[in-house]
Amino acid sequence: xxxxxxxxxxxxxxxxxxxxxxxxxxxxxxxxxxxxxxxxxxxxxxxxxxxxxxxxxxxxxxxxxxxxxxxxxxxxxxxxxxxxxxxxxxxxxxxxxxxxxxxxxxxxxxxxxxxxxxxxxxxxxx
Length: 126
Prior knowledge:
By secondary structure, the protein is an all-beta fold. It has no helices and 11 strands. Helix content is 0%, strand content 49%. The model has no long low-confidence stretch (mean pLDDT 96).
C-alpha cells in the first residue's frame, strides 16, 4: 500500500509559479507510474502530467505542456510538479496518484491509478 501526501498549493497571481510536492510512503516499485491530476468545481478530474518511476519518461496534457514540468526523486520517494506561467484556468485541487501498472498506455485515465493523495488547492488570481 502506498500513501501519498501533496503539499505546495496556495494562492498565486496569474503569470506566477508554484511547485507542488508529493511524498510517497513505502517502497515504490520500478513498475509504477506517478501522475498529477486536477479537478475544479463542476468538472471531472483532469490529467495533468505523469512520469514513469523507473525510466523517468514523462507525459503531459496539451494544456500544460511547456509550462509544467513533472519530476521525481527516487531516493526521497518524491514527485514534483513545477508550474510556471499560471493562469486562472489552472485553478483546481491538484492530486498526486500512483499507478501500479505503469506500462499501460492509458496514462491519462484516472481509472488506471490505484492510489491517490488528499489533494492540494491551487488558486490563480487574475
